[in-house]
Design a protein that fits this description.
This protein is mainly α. The protein contains eleven helices and no strands. It has one domain. It is a multi-pass membrane protein. It is found in: Cell membrane.
């Protein structure tokens, strides 16, 4: 990301805006799900909004701009306000990545239509922006589904594990940031997290983007 800033500041600004949009949608979806499930905590905390200022996490945003993946400010919710705390916490966590996948699919459908209907053909510039938006949303979704605290995947797994393993799984929460840093740190030039998620991201992108657009990513 920093090399893009040095070579092409305008491209960096566009990418930053797309990443911020993807994060804001992600975190807003968490807040909306919690609110729908009966917890007013996100609404009270001012998180039931698409305003990026409410959702950007300093560390997660820095990592996003440095390495291309990160996270937003965690949306607070009170399990005691939920009807089924364990299940609903998993649903609230899953909705964030799901919203990014929905945005990616929606953008891909728009691009598909423009390739089928010449009258709706977009400029190359707009097509490239939509393609990048698809990529960032898929990347954000898959990254956040990794089952390591503070990522969403940790609570998603907690919600589907057999009850006898639930307490043991929650014990791992305290080590989450250590695990995450180890996954992100580029040992021998490449991070473990890139090795894990890159094939999944590439596969989903290959399904969403037409061949001539896929070359943009």
């Amino acid at each position: 990301m920093l090399d893009i800033l040095a070579k092409n500041p305008i491209e960096f600004i566009i990418i930053a805006a797309l990443l911020v949009a993807a994060i804001s949608i992600h975190e807003f979806s968490h807040a909306l799900a919690a609110d729908h499930l009966g917890d007013p905590t996100p609404r009270i905390a001012g998180r039931l909004t698409l305003n990026p200022k409410a959702h950007l996490d300093p560390l997660g945003t820095v990592l996003l701009f440095l390495f291309g993946f990160g996270w937003g400010k965690p949306v607070p919710f009170d399990p005691f306000n939920l009807r089924e705390p364990r299940r609903d916490a998993a649903l609230i966590s899953f909705v964030g990545p799901l919203s990014n996948l929905i945005m990616a699919i929606t953008s891909a459908i728009i691009l598909r239509f423009t390739t089928i209907l010449p009258s709706l053909t977009l400029s190359v510039f707009i097509s490239d922006i939509l393609s990048m938006f698809i990529y960032f949303n898929v990347l954000l979704a898959i990254f956040n589904l990794i089952p390591v605290h503070p990522l969403d995947g940790f609570k998603v797994v907690a919600g589907i594990l057999p009850h006898k393993y639930y307490s043991d799984w929650l014990e791992l929460e305290r080590y989450g940031m250590i695990f995450l840093i180890m996954l992100i740190f580029p040992f021998m030039g490449s991070s473990a997290i890139t090795t894990i998620i890159s094939p999944i991201v590439r596969f989903i992108i290959s399904l969403l983007l037409p061949a001539k657009i896929g070359g943009v990513i």
